Amino acid sequence: MPEEIDKVGNVSQQRYEQIVAELREVVEQQTQGQFTIGDRALEIEPMRRPEDGSQALPGQDLFTVRQALTRLAEDIGLKRSTVENARWTASRWPREHRQAGVSFTVHRVLGSIPDEEERFAEIKTPPEGKSRWTVDDANRRVGRQVESPASPQEKITAIHSLARDEDVAAAVTTDFLKRPTVAAKVPAHDKVRVVEEFTRDEHVATQVTTGLLRRPEVAFKAMSDDTARHQVNHAQVERGRQAREHFEDTSPVAPAVRHIDRTVEFLDLVTACHAFVAAAGRTVPGLRDRTLGEDERTIVHENVAKVRATLDWIETAVDTGKVDMDGELTRMLRGE
User: Fold this and answer.
1) pLDDT digits (tens, 9 = 90+) for 83-99
2) Mean pLDDT of the 96-112 span
3) How far is 74 from 66, CA to CA, in rounded Å?
4) What distance in Å separates the CA atoms of residue 277 and residue 312, rounded to the nearest whole number?
5) What does the H/E/C string look like for 253-307?
6) pTM exceeds 0.85 for this model
7) Separation between Cα atoms, residue 56 and residue 335, nearest integer Å
8) Given a cut of 50, is residue 53 above it in pLDDT?
9) What is the C-alpha to C-alpha distance for residues 175 and 172, in angstroms, rounded to an integer?
10) How far apart are CA 183 and CA 257, in angstroms?
C-alpha cells in the first residue's frame, strides 16, 4: 500500500503550501488596496482637520468629516466604518514604515501602539519563534482579546467575554460546578464566598442549611461555634413559642390542653421536689462519722443556700403565680 501523505484538510501538504503562497499575494494586494483607500480618505479629510469642517474655503460646500467620509464610502460601495478604519490606519503608518508581507489587519492592530518609534520598530520584529506576525500575536502585543486563546489567562478572558450575559454566565457557572475536578480546585475561601452569594435567598439558604446539618460531621463542627449554637437554640425556642401561640389562638381544644399543661407542670414540680428529697435521703446518711474539710463545707453551704433560695422561689410561684426571679436569686443561681 502507498504511504499515507500528510494532508491539510482535503489537500496534500505540497498543495497547501502552493495555496498559501498564492493567497499571500492576494492578501498583499488587499493590504495595498486598503492603504490606498486610507490614503485617499486622508487626502479628502486629513486627521488634523476639525470635526466641524470649519477649514473649508469660502464658497465651498461645508461638509463635516463624517459627511465627507460617508459620501466617499457610498460612492465606492463600502461601509463608512471601513473607510474610517482605513483612513486611521493609513495615518498611523506613513508609506516608508509599512511592511510588505504584513497584513493590513496587523498594521491596524499594531497601529494602537502610542509611541511612534516603538510602533515602527515593533512591526519589523515578529514575536520570538515566529517568522511572521499573526493577528492574534498583534492583539497580544497591544493587550486585546485573541481569537484563539492559548494561555490560561487568555482562555479565562475569552470565557468572561462570552459570559457577559447574566443568563449565559449562570448556565456556565452551573455546568462548571457540576464537575467535581473543577469544584475541587476552587480555593476554600472562594467556595465560602460562592455559597454565601448563592444563599442570599432565604429559601435557598434554608434548604442548604437543612441539608448540611443532616451530615453528622458538619453538624458537630457547626455546633462547636458558640454563635451558631446559640442561634440554633434560640431558633428552637422561638419555633416552639410560635407553634404554641398558633395552637392556643386557633385550636378549639386549647383551653383543655392549657389545664393539662398546668397539671403536667404541677406533676413536674412535685417530682423535682421528691427527687431532691430522695437524693438527700440517700446521700446525707453517708456523712455519718465523716468530717468534711473547710473547702468542702464551704461548697456544700453555698449549694444549700442556692437550694434554700430556690425553695423560697418555688413557694412564691405557687402562692402568687409570679415566677420572676429577683436580682439576688439570679446572681446566686449563676454562681456570681
Assistant:
1) 999 999 999 999 999 99
2) 95
3) 12
4) 16
5) CHHHHHHHHHHHHHHHHHHHHHHHHHHHHHHHHHHCCCCCCHHHHHHHHHHHHHH
6) no
7) 97
8) no
9) 5
10) 53
